[in-house]
Amino acid sequence: MLKSFQTALLGATLLGAALASPAHAETKINALFMAQAAYSEADVRAMTDAFTKANPDVTVNLEFVPYEGLHDKTVLAQGSGGGYDVVLFDVIWPAEYATNKVLLDVSDKITGDMKTGVLPGAWTTVKYEGKRYGMPWILDTKYLFYNKEILEKAGIKNPPKTWAELAEQAKTIKDKGLLATPIAWSWSQAEAAICDYTTLVSAYGGSFLKDGKPVFQTGGGLEALNYMVDSYKSGLTNPNSKEFLEEDVRRVFQNGEAAFALNWTYMYNMANDPKDSKVAGKVGVVPAPGVDGKSTVSAVNGSMGLGITSTSKHPDEAWKYITFMTSQQTQNQYAKLSLPIWASSYTDPAVSKGQEELIAAAKQSLAAMYPRPTTPKYQELSTALQQAVQESLLGQNKPEDALKTAAENSGL
């Protein structure tokens, strides 16, 4: 009797445990994003909430760091045996990440629809030596933003089409007393400055490397830095540009303190938001200018991708999350701060409505995106170039000498 009671009790206990346990074992994945530019933190959280509602057996723990900490955070976590399953990475890192086995090669996961549907330029964000190390997610370049009201007051009918014309228009605005320093750039000693520099290198038809060796110290690379120094010394550029990152440029522009600014896609709708911006409704945007006889527009590839770390214990769930975040449906829904990677999105009225001017500029700029150098030693090269830019702006070194030193310190 006692034995049968114990058996019944055990059976009831097991049944209760079975009923109490969830139908699916929950998988937790960790994802690392940046806390600036492109999609906002609120957007990423909303996208992720939609994913977890559709996939209740997966929980996503989100971490946001400034762009400047994204690379090192990823690499350090890798060295300590993991921590992240999904990481956001810049177009400049696949060479290093592939060489050091930071990311998984996901070439075999890319479907035919992905290959044909995503813009060809976007795929360059995640490729290295023919392999794909994730999905492109943020398709971005720097545009020239301008304050329509200030240009109108200065009697300027059209925004500049060349960098020389930009300087002329800025001088007109300054001479008429409309703004003391009409141009804002992000020239802090950081990657932001290299993005501005690359935009100008593309305009002047320059190159970074030839046969793996630096050539930026001559030709278009030198002309680009000379333009930056001339603009800074002329008094047309906000002198604080040497300390500005992109968010500083955005704040200055939307406070009405700049007639011209070079910045990423996200600034268009933020600067047009009347809740936070003094220039809402006055924001113009065009492709970054060209140089007579050399280019009609200029653009840097500032795109970013989502990849799976090689130490991830949940690569299947990580890939499911990445495909959701980069899907056309998700991207079209959040197209106000970052434009979609999908070609057919640009004919969707829901994407273009209210930002027709930006879409028109994007069609030219995205086709002209110029890459920063593809090399596993990109970090060393960028650091050397950042120093060269800063020294040149501060008058501590001549541009040709600063770039020569950068080439010697690039590790190439």
Note down, in words, how this protein is organized.
The chain has 412 residues and is α+β, with helices and mostly antiparallel strands. It folds into 2 domains: 27-140 and 302-360, Periplasmic binding protein-like II (D-Maltodextrin-Binding Protein, domain 2, 3-Layer(aba) Sandwich); 142-300 and 377-408, Periplasmic binding protein-like II (D-Maltodextrin-Binding Protein, domain 2), CATH 3.40.190. The protein is 44% helix and 15% strand. The protein contains 18 helices and 14 strands. The strands form 4 sheets. It has a 5-stranded mixed β-sheet with strand order 2-1-3-14-6. The protein has a 5-stranded mixed β-sheet with strand order 8-11-7-12-13. It has a two-stranded antiparallel ribbon with strand order 4-5. β1, α2 and β2 form a beta-alpha-beta unit. α9 packs across α10 (219-233), α9 (191-203) packs across α17 (378-393) and α17 packs antiparallel against α18 (399-408). The protein is globular and about 70 Å long.
